Amino acid sequence: MVQGNIAQVTTGHALTALKVSLGVLVAYVVAKKILRVDRFWKTLVLLAAITAVIDFLIHPTHVGEAWSEAVLA
Description:
Blueprint: H1 11-35, H2 40-58, H3 68-72
């Protein structure tokens, strides 16, 4: 969001990051319980997929298609 420049962080950036983080945390815990994921690599894939979906739903894109920034981030 600020490309590594901490001086550019605003309240809006922090709130967006908090929303994404909390969304990912809740979705991950629920999905892990429902799907009973126990292998490390499955956990990584699940976390990556959930992060991309939550980021797509919450964070507006600035790169290419609507889904591309969520997948690349």
